Amino acid sequence: MKTKRVSFLLGILLYGLLAGMLLGIAALALFLIQDRMRASESVPAGPFEVVGSATFDGVLAIDPPVDMPEFTLSDSMGDSVRLADFRGRHALLTFGFTHCPDICPLTLNDFERIRRLLGDSADSIAFVFISVDGARDTPAALRQYFEFRQLDHIKALTGDEDSVRTMGEPLGLSFEINEEDSAGGYMINHTSGAFLLDQAGRWIKRYQFGVPPETVAADLRELLG
Length: 225
Fold this sequence. Notes:
Elements: H1 2-41, E1 59-67, E2 72-75, E3 80-82, E4 90-96, H2 103-118, E5 125-131, H3 139-148, E6 154-158, H4 161-168, E7 175-177, E8 188-190, E9 194-197, E10 202-207, H5 213-224
Helix pairs in contact: 2-5
């Protein structure tokens, strides 16, 4: 009887140790998953570190300015828009697609913040969103998306893949459409950040994704004098 009782107690002890180990492993796995999710969702807000050089604030001056090719795309009302339509004021461009879950909405939020920070000077700049997903981002789809998000001061443009690639080539634009999932949806890897054109339609500034709106607004304010 005594031997059986000792065996029973040892069994309970071993079971408790095993259960404790499993709970510890599960807790560690959950912590690592949450930590990784936090890291992947974070947006750099401080200065950018560039290997072999001084601290880079994410704002790059393009000198000499780069001439942009004339292009014709469609806006959210289905009307044709050309590069020449922005002549006489600066244009801040960004590329994306309305099904984007993170970078594109954040960039559009930044554009709205920049506009508010500029105050009356904001009218001197055209804020432009160019879709890299012409198949889904029709003028009607863009109109619905921008009206729903109340992005009234951002010009949304779309076009076929070749037209968008051609107009973005001088900017180093790159985008790749991924394979469709089981539901028929797909994601697009694309160049992020913003590109500033001067009043003559030449590329003069590059703002990397993650540069605070306050930094961009201050830079634009200095440029506008």
